[in-house]
Amino acid sequence: MYKNILLAVDGSEHSLRATQEVIKIASLVNECRIEVVYVADFSKSKNEVLHSQGKEEIELSRRKKLLPIEEKLKSSNLSYQTKILHGEPGPTIVDYANKGNFELAIIGSRGLNSLQEMVLGSVSHKVAKRVQCPVLIVK
Question: Do the beta carbons of residue 28 and residue 1 sit within 8 Å?
Answer without folding.
Answer: yes
